[in-house]
Structures are given as structure tokens and as C-alpha cells.
Design brief:
The complex is a heterodimer of chains A (about 675) and B (about 375). By secondary structure, chain A is of the alpha+beta class. Chain A has a domain of about 190 residues: Penicillin-binding protein 2a (Domain 2). Chain A is about 40% helix and about 15% strand. In chain A, the strands form six sheets. In chain A, strands 2, 3, 4, 5 and 10 form a five-stranded mixed β-sheet that branches. In chain A, strands 12-11-19-18-17 form a five-stranded antiparallel β-sheet. Chain A has a three-stranded antiparallel β-sheet with strand order 1-8-9. Chain A is elongated, with a radius of gyration of 36 Å. The relative contact order of chain A is 0.09. About 0% of the residues of chain A have low confidence. Chain B is globular. A three-stranded antiparallel β-sheet of chain B has the order 1-2-3, with helices on one face. Chain B has two domains: about 210 residues, no CATH class; about 130 residues. With about 375 residues, chain B is mainly α. Classes of the chains: A alpha+beta (about 675), B mainly alpha (about 375). At the A-B interface, helix 1 and helix 2 of A face helix 8, helix 11, helix 13 and helix 14 of B.
Chain lengths: ~675, ~375
């Protein structure tokens, strides 16, 4: 039955098939050798890459401390309770019983409970869910003791940024916040996308972010394909950020902020010799502790709408006409031009140039005024005359020497440079049309008394005062890294400076000066200063004839800015200060006492603190009154809204003129 | 006593015990691999795998005691019963995992396409047994042969189950090749298939097309469907020459490797045992296949020869496709590695297959003494 031919044919085919199988076997063996021997290293790396994950250990942010080492920004432990659903379900319990167990120790609000249930349902099992953050220490320890045996529940500790002085340092220090996607794209630092990691968003926190940030550590962990941690393989410790020491005196800054109360104002105190900035306050401000977490929309809107601009750092970004505080510059420019200090100018209360009249703040004039009396009297007419004689370029050059119109190398983002106008500047600004761009003499008169185009920020005024007081080209410093450099002399003859300083002493201490309110109550310490009242509105001829309204009668926005610059002690200058109160009416009456108290604090803190209760009570009373008005307004608004439309009558309340034009003129404020 | 002293002992002695030993070695290795895949535990796979193999080995030896001529007689009934069952699957079968493969017989779930892989060999061997020498390539012989292959292949494709359909096709064509159909006809067929590929492409299901596309470029979708192949290659490649050590595989134990106990068991093994382990498995199977070829060549009748080698070709198809798949040389088709992968029905198929070949070996063996 078996055919040998067929058998031989089958054998041939069988061997052919066998050869095919052997070939395939060889191919498989070769392929496997190719994968495991020739590309083994590559695949081993890939397997390691699968298995091992580097987890970041975020560094702790460096502290910011004041010149005495007192903390301004620090990291506060933040205690929270976490739930790991994976552990919970592995242990065979469910969410309800666990929540009941937790409720026996701490409260969970219904909102929190909703969020927890939502997170547990939607997140991967191994991701911890925060039950509650911001636990108090007693709550935290209670959780640690009483929830230790509940599976899947852990009380953990992390750190959050804390500013103990809150809004008093808000503008200077800034705040921290989550990095933006743009920042991550620019830096490519994986730390920036670590959950909860914060970087500096404003002020020194932003400028010195690199130093404060530190370096992340890493933990090598073994993970499963689902990202579950199996075990830790090793760690590299993180390097916390450097501690940043500032030249600021925390207590002084804090005092200045309290002394300002509810004013929209800035106070800067500098060391005349070293340039150290001891205080740099801008009020009102926001609470950086709230900004570092999340700003509620209502608070944000309120801050943005507030006409006291709590979001603006007035010390560095606010620009104001320096007003009469600029008159020292004009004086020095005149002296340098060879004007005799004893030469008198007759002040009749008005100064005519062409068809226009420039007024002195004293309506009836000061009579004969020489340079020694011009500063204490703040006689505008004298400076109109001197400014006209030396020309705007000489004044501008002197202003620049004293630090106006420049930005300083400080770790503050966004300083406003201000303007020191001269002929070249006007050409640049308004050119090329000569009609617009040529300097007019009237503008020199304005510049001579610190008005017109001239604007400066409070920091520049403080530097100007420090330079006047020391005679050196002092530069402001904020970060205390090593001793202050030896600043070069300004190149202004000591005699000139002495004359100006004596003038400033007389402003405060002579009976006829404009700022008797700044007179020091500390024995042996004389304060020297200069007032300034910067107009923010133009006073028309008609208004002037009718009689200039008292500032108090004007809406807040139209009142004059009050300025005061000072240094103390007068005989051996150590500290310089500048105070600006936005729409503060008059430098002598309102800004000078604040400068006096802040400088007093440096010599006799107890005496300075004694004035605070009255100031704060006053501010509290005003705040309460405002709140009453706002509440009444909102109730009225509510009533109007709820009133049916057919009942609504649009009657405007009558507006009464505050000042009667026929009434006797009130005396104008001395500056 | 007569029973004990009768031909039983002689018949048992004629069984190919060497191959039984080889198979036990392979399955034993499979138990080790599944022990590791289970995270170093006999549960849930390793122990059951071993027990299953022991029971099925006894069954295969029992099948081997049947004379091969019995299969010649039963070839058509088995084939047509299964063909009917395949039609039945189309009509009343259970849908599992997106395709209709299972028939519920009341007491067990039965997958006729799995058995069809074997039945096609029996049927084709039966068919060519009675074709005289020289007539194999005539159209009137070829056309019924092709019909015998095409009917089950078509029905399985409808389920749809590409892997099994290809397996049946390969078995049938292998028998035709062994029966002596002219070589140029195969060449022409390959050319024809190549020309028809675009048409076939349109007939494939979306998931099948996706598998093929991902096979062609696995890196295109490393997190999605290409994940299987990529991770499998990483597992094999990272094993190196001698592997990471028993129970030390990271790809498998940390769940990066999917299907680590079924289709990708070879990758699980290769990660821990390395190239040596792979060559060991390939070598053992090479010996089994070599034994099968020798058995076929030495068999007494054309039917026995065609059946033995046809079945061996089917076993080879399993091995080759699975290993090529895990090494990234073939698309992902759900074909397990015989005797090593977890899975009852595939092991049953393979053991029946081996039982039949052992039967041929026993029938043609001279008395050992």
C-alpha cells in the first residue's frame, strides 16, 4: 500500500519544511540575541526608566530677615490631614466609616465633605486627598493620637510662606504664588510644576527669587505602571534657600506703617552715611499672606477699586511733584552760580513774567527775603527770581547730582524714574516742532519751586535728603551684604551745604519756619526738614479772584499732596526721611508730624509709641464712619433695586455749595 | 493478571517517553514562569497550570494508545461536525471580547475553531491519502482541497478571529505542500495573495487593521495600543544574556508588561532568564519538532505522515507567531505560547495534537526489545 515514490517525495518536502522551521528558529534566536545582547543596554535603560522615577523634594524657601535678624518672611508649618483611598480600601473599610471616625476628632464642613467624596471618586486611588488643611496644633496632635489606627488617614506637615507683619511689608517684600505656565516654559525647571511650589511674585521675593528658592532634592523611588510607589531607592537632600538679610529695621517699618494709619502715603527712612534703607512703607497695602494662597475675587475687586491704590508701591512707583522740597536744589544751584546769599528779593505775593502772574503761597507776600530766610519761609517769589537767574539747566544738573530722575540698583521691580526736565529733555519729549519744544521761561519758574514737569518718587526724595545731609553721593541699599561702600563726595562746597542745612533746621526750629509741627521732642536731637505741598489741580485766575477753596473743602482727589523731607540729628546727620501723603493737604501740618514721630522712634521708641493710641483711635473712628456711610448707601441701593419700577421716582438730592463766594476768605494754609 | 501481563506493557513501552520528558520539562519551566508572574506565588496560575498539564498529559497518552487508522476513519465525521458547530457559533454563539467564538454546550463552553485547527489536518490528510501519486496538482484535486480549507477559514474569519483563521489556513496549506502539490503553485498563490492584499485590508475589522498598523510602527503610539509590543521588547531586551534572575523581573512585577501570564509569557520568561532562557525554550521545542519530523518521515502510510507533520506544522505556527509577536516581528494576534502560557483551552488543543503525533510514533515503532 505504501508507495516508495510517494514516501521519497514526502521525505523531501518534510525536510524542506523542517529546514523552514529551523530557519525560523534561527531567526527567532537571532532576533532575541539582537534585542538582548546588542541593544540590551538600551532596553535595560528603558526598563530602569519605567521602574525608577525621580521624585522632587522641594526646597524650603529662604527666610527674609531685617537688619537685626528678626524675621520678615518665614516658612510656617502647615498641618493637614490626608486620606489615601488605596490604603483605606485595601484595609477593607469604606469612606463613610472613615469620615465618621475623622468627625469624632475634627470638624469637616459639608463643602469639604463634598469635595473629598468627589476627589476620592475621580482621582487615582493612590493620590492622597486632603481632608482639611490649616489644622491648628491641638487639632494636628489630636489627629496624630486618635486617628493613628484608622487606615489610610495620615496627618502630615508641610510648609507655607508666612509674613508675620502682613501688610506693613507687602510692597517691599512682595508675596509668593504659583508659577505661571510661561515661567515654566522659559525655565524648564520641573520644580515649577511641583504641586504647591511657590515662587516670588512681587517685590524682593520676586527680584531675589533665585537666592531664596534653593535647590530641589530628589528621591529615587520604584513605581508600578500605575504610578504606585513600591519603595524608596535613595534620596539626595534638598538645599534650602539662602536667608536674605535686609537693611530694613522691622520695628521701625512697623511703627511707620502704624503711624500712617489710614493715609494713602509713603514713608522712607535712610541711613545718611551708609545708604541703608531702614524703612520703606507704602500704605495702604494688601495682606501678602492672603495673596500667597489665593485672592478672593471680592477682595481683589475691592483692592483694585480703592482710590488709595493699595496695590501700588508708592515708595518706588508713585510719582509726585516734589513741590517745595525741591527748593534746596534751587538754592544749591543758585549758590553754585555765585548768587550772594545775603541778596534780598522783594516778595509781594505775586511775581510777574510777561502777561502772567506767578503767586507765592503767602497772599500778602513775605517782604524782603534773602537766601537764609527763603527756605524757612518757603518763599516762592525768591525761588522764581533765583530760578530765572540760573536757568533750568543748572537746576536740572543739580537735581541729578542729588539723585532725582534716576533709578537705583535696588531689588525692587519696576521703579519709576521720574522726570527732571531741562531744555534738552523738552526737545526730546515734544520736538521737533520748535513752538512746542522750546523751553519757556515760565516753565523755569515752575521747575524752581518743584512743580511743572518735575516729578519724583519718594525714594529719590529720601536719597536727595540723605545726600544733602551727608554731602556724599549716597546710594540706597536694601540687602545687607557686607559693609557699606565709601561713597564719593558730591563735590558741593561744604559752605553751600551748611547754608542749606541751616535753612532746613530753621524750617522746623525757627519761629517763622513752615514746619514747627516737626520740632523734635527728644532733647539734644534737632530735626531739620523741608515741607512741600504739591498742587494736583490748576488754580484758575477766576478761582483765585473768588478765593481759593480750603483744601479740606475739596474732594479728596483734588487736595494737594503733602510732602516732608527731614534729617536728624541736625548737627551730625545720621538718618534721612521722606514722607509723602497723597492728597494730604499740607506738608507742614500733616506730613511733618509723621516724619517727626518716625525719626523720634529711632532715638526714643517709647516717646514715639505714645502718640500711636490717639492716631489709631482717630483712624478707627474714620473707618467706622465710612463703614456706616457705606452700609447706609448699600441699604439705599438695595431699597432702590427692590422698589417696584412704578414706584420709583428719580429725584436727585439737592447739591449745596460748600463755600459761599461772598464769605470772608479763609487764610491760606502756610506750607 | 492477564490484563497486566497482556500487550499493555508492551504497548506502553512503545510510547515515545523521551518526548514526554521533553514536554514535562517545557511545562515545568512554564510553571516556574507563571510562579514568577504571579508575584512569587503558586496562586493563581502556577499550580493550576501544573495540574492541568499532568491531567492533559495523561489524556494525550491515552489518545496515543489509539491506532492512527482510527483517525483516518473519523476524519470526515470530526471535520463536518466541527464545521456544523462553527455555523452554530455564527447563529447562537456567545459573544466574548467583541467576537463570537464560544458555543455553550450546557456543561461546558466549547470553542469549535480551536479544535478545527486539528480537524483540518485530519481532513486534509484523509483527502490526500487517497489521491494517487502525480495527481496532486490537478485542478479537480486541488479545488475540493481548497474548499475543505476555505470553509472553516471563512467561518472563523466571520467570528472574527484572524489568528485562528490563519492557523487553520497554515495547517491546511502545509498538508498540501507535504502531499506534493507543485511548488510553483505555492509561488503563484503567494503572488496572488500579495495582489489581493489591498482587498483584504478593506475586509479587516478596525481593531485588526490597528494591530497591523501598530505592528508596522509600534513607537507611533507607545502609551496606547503600541504599548504591548514596546513593553515586551523592553522586557526581552533588558534581560540581557542571563536575565535579571528568578523573581527579579521589573517589567513583569511592576505591571509594565501587559498579559504577562498569557500571550506575553515568553517576555516574562526572557526578562528573568535572559537569552539563555529563550534559547533553552527554543531548543526544547526544536527537539520536539525534530522528533515530530522524524516520526512523520518514518511513518508507514501517507495519512500518518501527513497527519503527523501537518500537526507539527500547526504547533510550529503557534510557536513561531507567538515568539515573533513578543519580539516585535509579527502583529499582536492572540496566540499563546504552547505549554508555557496560562490558558486551558489552548493547552488542551496542543496536548491533543501531541497525543495524535505520539500515536503515530507508537504505531510505527519497532518493539524496543
Amino acid at each position: 500500500m505504501d508507495d516508495p515514490v510517494r514516501r521519497a517525495s514526502f521525505t523531501r518536502r518534510a525536510l524542506l519544511l523542517g529546514a523552514g522551521m529551523a530557519g525560523t528558529g534561527a531567526l527567532l534566536a537571532g532576533r532575541m540575541a539582537w534585542l538582548s545582547l546588542f541593544h540590551g543596554d538600551e532596553y535595560r535603560l528603558k526598563a530602569e526608566g519605567n521602574r525608577v522615577q525621580n521624585r522632587l523634594v522641594p526646597p524650603r524657601r529662604g527666610w527674609i530677615v531685617d537688619r537685626h535678624g528678626k524675621p520678615i518672611a518665614l516658612n510656617r508649618p502647615d498641618y493637614r490631614l490626608e486620606l489615601r483611598p488605596a490604603d483605606l480600601f485595601d484595609a477593607g473599610t469604606d469612606l463613610n466609616t472613615t469620615l465618621i471616625a475623622i468627625r469624632q476628632v475634627i470638624d469637616i464642613s459639608p463643602d469639604d465633605e463634598l469635595r473629598i467624596r468627589d476627589d476620592v471618586a475621580s482621582q487615582p486611588r493612590f493620590m492622597p486627598v486632603v481632608v482639611r488643611s490649616n489644622l491648628s496644633w491641638p487639632e494636628f496632635s489630636a489627629c496624630n493620637v486618635r486617628l493613628a489606627t484608622v487606615p489610610g488617614v495620615a496627618a502630615v506637615q508641610s510648609f507655607s510662606r508666612h509674613y508675620p507683619e502682613a501688610d506693613r511689608f507687602a510692597h517691599l517684600i512682595g508675596y509668593v504664588g504659583a508659577p505661571t505656565p510661561e515661567q515654566y516654559r522659559a525655565e524648564r525647571d520641573p520644580l515649577l510644576i511641583y504641586p504647591g511650589f511657590r515662587i516670588g511674585k512681587d517685590g524682593i521675593e520676586r527680584h531675589e527669587d533665585r537666592r531664596l528658592r534653593g535647590e530641589a532634592g530628589a528621591a529615587r523611588v520604584e513605581v508600578t505602571a500605575r504610578g504606585e510607589l513600591v519603595r524608596e531607592l535613595g534620596t539626595r537632600a534638598d538645599r534650602p534657600g539662602d536667608t536674605l538679610k535686609l537693611t530694613i529695621d522691622r520695628e521701625l517699618q512697623s511703627y511707620a506703617a502704624r503711624r500712617l494709619a489710614d493715609n494713602s502715603a509713603s514713608v522712607i527712612v535712610m541711613d545718611c552715611q551708609s545708604g541703608d534703607i531702614l524703612a520703606m512703607v507704602s500704605m495702604p497695602a494688601y495682606d501678602p499672606n492672603i495673596f500667597s494662597t489665593r485672592v478672593p475675587a471680592r477682595l481683589w475687586n475691592a483692592l483694585q477699586k480703592d482710590d488709595h491704590t493699595p496695590l501700588l508701591n508708592k515708595s518706588a512707583m508713585g510719582l509726585y511733584p516734589p513741590g517745595s522740597t525741591f527748593k534746596m536744589v534751587t538754592t544749591l544751584a543758585a549758590l553754585e552760580a555765585g548768587v550772594d546769599p545775603d541778596e534780598a528779593v522783594l516778595c509781594t505775593g505775586a511775581y510777574r513774567l510777561g502777561n502772567n502772574t506767578w503767586h507765592c503761597h503767602a497772599r500778602r507776600g513775605h517782604g524782603g527775603v534773602n537766601m537764609h530766610r527763603a527756605l524757612p519761609l518757603s518763599c516762592d517769589t525768591y525761588f522764581y527770581a533765583m530760578g530765572r537767574r540760573v536757568g533750568v539747566d543748572a537746576i536740572a544738573a543739580m537735581a541729578r547730582r542729588l539723585g532725582l530722575g534716576q533709578e537705583f540698583p535696588l531689588p525692587i521691580p519696576g521703579q519709576a524714574g521720574g522726570i527732571v526736565p531741562d531744555k534738552a529733555w523738552k526737545q526730546r519729549r515734544y520736538g521737533p516742532d520748535p513752538k512746542k519744544a522750546n523751553w519757556r521761561e515760565g516753565e523755569t519758574l515752575n521747575a524752581a519751586i518743584g512743580q511743572g514737569y518735575l516729578i519724583a518718587n519718594p525714594l529719590q526724595l529720601a536719597v536727595m535728603t540723605a545726600r544733602l545731609a551727608s554731602g556724599r553721593a549716597v546710594m540706597p541699599r536694601l540687602i545687607a551684604d557686607g559693609p557699606a561702600p565709601d561713597y564719593p563726595s558730591l563735590g558741593i562746597p561744604e559752605a553751600h551745604l551748611a547754608l542749606v542745612r541751616q535753612g532746613m533746621v530753621d524750617v522746623v526750629n525757627a519761629g517763622y519756619g513752615t514746619a514747627p509741627a516737626a520740632r523734635s521732642s527728644v532733647p539734644d536731637v534737632l530735626i531739620a526738614g523741608k515741607t512741600g505741598t504739591a498742587q494736583v489741580r490748576r488754580i484758575s485766575m477766576a478761582e483765585r479772584r473768588r478765593g481759593v477753596l480750603r483744601n479740606e473743602a475739596l474732594p479728596w482727589k483734588q487736595r494737594d499732596h503733602a510732602l516732608f523731607v527731614a534729617f536728624a540729628p541736625a548737627d551730625a546727620p545720621r538718618y534721612a526721611a521722606s514722607v509723602i501723603i497723597e492728597h494730604g493737604i499740607a506738608g507742614g501740618r500733616y506730613a511733618a508730624p509723621i516724619a517727626r514721630d518716625v525719626l523720634t522712634y529711632l532715638f526714643e521708641p517709647e516717646r514715639a509709641l505714645a502718640v500711636l493710641p490717639a492716631v489709631e483711635a482717630d483712624a478707627a473712628e474714620r473707618r467706622a464712619a465710612n463703614e456706616r456711610i457705606e452700609t447706609a448707601a448699600s441699604i439705599a441701593e438695595e431699597n432702590r433695586r427692590l422698589m417696584p419700577s412704578w414706584l420709583k421716582i428719580d429725584v436727585q438730592p439737592p447739591v449745596f455749595e460748600v463755600a459761599d463766594p461772598d464769605a470772608p476768605l479763609p487764610p491760606r494754609e502756610p506750607e | 493478571m492477564d490484563l497486566l501481563n497482556g500487550p499493555w506493557r508492551r504497548e506502553l513501552a512503545r510510547l515515545p517517553w523521551g518526548v514526554v520528558l521533553l514536554l514535562a520539562a517545557i511545562a515545568g519551566f512554564g510553571v516556574l514562569v507563571l510562579y514568577s508572574a504571579g508575584g512569587g506565588s503558586l496562586d493563581p496560575w502556577a499550580l493550576k497550570h501544573g495540574v492541568r498539564f499532568a491531567i492533559l498529559l495523561l489524556g494525550a497518552l491515552a489518545l496515543a494508545m489509539l491506532p492512527p487508522e482510527r483517525w483516518l476513519a473519523w476524519a470526515w465525521p470530526i471535520y463536518f461536525t466541527l464545521l456544523l458547530a462553527l455555523v452554530g457559533v455564527e447563529l447562537v454563539g456567545a459573544v466574548k471580547g467583541g467576537s463570537q467564538r464560544w458555543l455553550n454546550l450546557g456543561f461546558m463552553e466549547f470553542q469549535p475553531s480551536e479544535m478545527m485547527k486539528l480537524a483540518i489536518i485530519l481532513a486534509m490528510a484523509r483527502y490526500f491519502q487517497y489521491v494517487p501519486k502525480g495527481y496532486e496538482s490537478r485542478p479537480d484535486v486541488l479545488i475540493p482541497a481548497l474548499a475543505i480549507i476555505a470553509m472553516p477559514v471563512g467561518l472563523v474569519m466571520l467570528q472574527p478571529d484572524l489568528g485562528t483563521a490563519l492557523s487553520i489556513l497554515f495547517g491546511g496549506v502545509a498538508v498540501m505542500f507535504l502531499a506534493g502539490v507543485r511548488l510553483w503553485l505555492f509561488g503563484a498563490a503567494v503572488a496572488g495573495v500579495g495582489a489581493l492584499l489591498p482587498v483584504a485590508w478593506n475586509l479587516l475589522h478596525d481593531y485588526q487593521r490597528k494591530r497591523v498598523l501598530i505592528f508596522l510602527d509600534p513607537e507611533s503610539d507607545p502609551r496606547g495600543a503600541g504599548y504591548h509590543i514596546t513593553q515586551s521588547k523592553i522586557a526581552i531586551g533588558s534581560g540581557g544574556l542571563s536575565g535579571k534572575g528568578f523573581l527579579q523581573g521589573t517589567q513583569s512585577h511592576l505591571d509594565y508588561l501587559p498579559e504577562l501570564h498569557t500571550d506575553f509569557a515568553f517576555a516574562t520568561m526572557a526578562e528573568e532568564w535572559g537569552l539563555m532562557g529563550g534559547l533553552f525554550v527554543i531548543g526544547l521545542y526544536g527537539l520536539v519538532l525534530a522528533w515530530g519530523i522524524r516520526t512523520a518521515v518514518n511513518a508507514g502510510t501517507q495519512f500518518q505522515r501527513l497527519m503527523a507533520l501537518g500537526l507539527m506544522a500547526t504547533l510550529f505556527f503557534y510557536l513561531a507567531i507567538n515568539m515573533m509577536m513578543v519580539m516585535g516581528l509579527a502583529p499582536v494576534v492572540g496566540i499563546p505560547l504552547p505549554l508555557i502560557s496560562w490558558g486551558g483551552s489552548s493547552m488542551m488543543t496542543v496536548m491533543i495534537l501531541l497525543g495524535l503525533v505520539m500515536g503515530v510514533a507508537r504505531a510505527n515503532r519497532q518493539n524496543p526489545d
